[in-house]
Design a protein that fits this description.
Elements (H helix, E strand, L loop, with lengths): L1 H10 L4 E15 L5 E5 L15 H13 L4 E6 L5 E6 L2 E2 H21 L2 E4 L13 E9 L2 E2 L11 H12 L1 H8 L5 H4 L9 E5 L5 E4 L11 E3 L8 H17 L17 H4 L9 H10 L2 H4 L6 H20 L3 H8 L1
Parallel strand pairs: 9-10
Antiparallel strand pairs: 1-2, 1-4, 1-5, 1-6, 1-7, 3-4, 7-8, 7-11, 10-11
Helix pairs in contact: 1-7, 2-3, 4-7, 5-7, 5-9, 9-11
Length: 333
């Protein structure tokens, strides 16, 4: 699917799709039998260092192994929640970047186990703390030039704005691939760290699409902040690319940037800003209605999309049919 999406992109005149992913993960303790628990091994917060960050040595070994495997690691740090971490590696052409995401997950899990810890990329493993996302930095290039570089808002080109417009238009359908689990939507809740509002901005992190500050115009890019690391990267980025290209082809403008802190907006302003899907069921329903942008150029087939939806509906059904511990708290007595 991703290779077909790249061929479609080339037919439209673009050369490469660059991706810089930022997958977050949690480290939990193992019990005496070597089984994973939900007990974190530190009380650290954003960018905390040792000794508060007790996983410092674990992350260091992960970085060393990744470096030996050819990764160019750019950052390694504790994240917002207790037990939560992030290791970032340099952007690459999307197919290689997706391969690296899969290798990265395997290395993280293997080294964590060696240190007596269990690594999970589950979006929301624990109530009351921030969930794990996978912010995605994206740009298109042609003839060695970054096509997203321009003279519009925050140094973006018109092409980049149309690309954003395509993502915003198809976001709820995209969620089926970028946030493909029932658990994904425990993270995508309004009012918390997760970027649920479909807006773009250079000046705040509450928008679902951010324009990062850069030191060189060549590094201009957009950052989609709603995906999570439970996504199959090949499907997620094929879908994001197709949505963006649909925006470019059809000149879908995203409207004005939103430079206010979206978390602080009054209800009367919030109601006019679209949001991502609030459940996997809503995402699948959206994909069922809005999939034609994915089939352009024969990239995704209708049969594939229908099969994907059917598989994922079984996950929704299983959760819906299973009594939840919170239900016992609220209703049992």
């Amino acid at each position: 699917n991703l290779k077909r999406a790249l061929r479609h992109m080339e037919e439209l005149g673009f050369k490469s799709f660059n991706l810089g992913p930022e997958p977050e993960f949690f480290l939990f303790k193992l019990d005496e039998n070597g089984d994973p628990t939900l007990e974190v091994n530190d009380k650290g917060g954003y960018f905390d260092l040792a000794p508060t960050d007790l996983a410092d040595n674990t992350r260091r070994e992960i970085v060393n192994v990744l470096t030996k495997m050819g990764f160019e690691v750019e950052a390694s740090h504790h994240e917002v929640a207790v037990g939560q971490h992030e290791i970032d590696f340099k952007y690459d052409e999307v197919l290689r970047a997706c391969d690296k995401i899969q290798i990265f997950k395997l290395v993280v899990k293997t080294i964590a186990r060696k240190h007596g810890l269990y690594a999970t990329f589950m979006a929301k493993p624990k109530f009351g703390i921030a969930g794990s996302g996978m912010h995605c930095n994206m740009s298109l290039s042609k003839d060695g030039k970054n096509i997203f570089q321009g003279d519009k808002y925050a140094g973006l080109s018109e092409t980049a704005l149309y690309y954003i417009g395509g993502i915003i238009k198809h976001a709820k359908a995209l969620n089926a691939f970028t946030n493909p689990s029932t658990n994904s939507y425990k993270r995508l809740v309004p009012g918390f760290e997760a970027p649920v509002l479909l807006a773009y901005s250079a000046s705040n992190r509450s928008a679902s699409i951010r324009i990062p500050a850069v030191t060189s115009p060549k590094a201009i890019r957009i950052e989609a902040r709603f995906p999570d690391p439970m996504a199959n990267p090949y499907l997620a980025f094929a879908a994001l690319l197709m949505a963006g290209l649909d925006g470019v082809v059809n000149k879908i403008h995203p409207g004005d940037a939103m430079d206010k802190n979206l978390y602080d907006l009054p209800p009367e302003e919030l109601k006019d800003i679209p949001a991502v899907a609030s459940s996997l069921e809503e995402a699948l329903n959206s994909l069922e209605k809005d999939y034609e942008f994915l089939t352009q150029g024969g990239v995704f087939t209708k049969d594939f999309i229908e099969a994907f939806i059917n598989i994922k509906r079984k996950e929704v059904e299983r959760l819906n049919m299973t009594p939840h511990p919170v239900e016992f708290e609220m209703y049992y007595a």
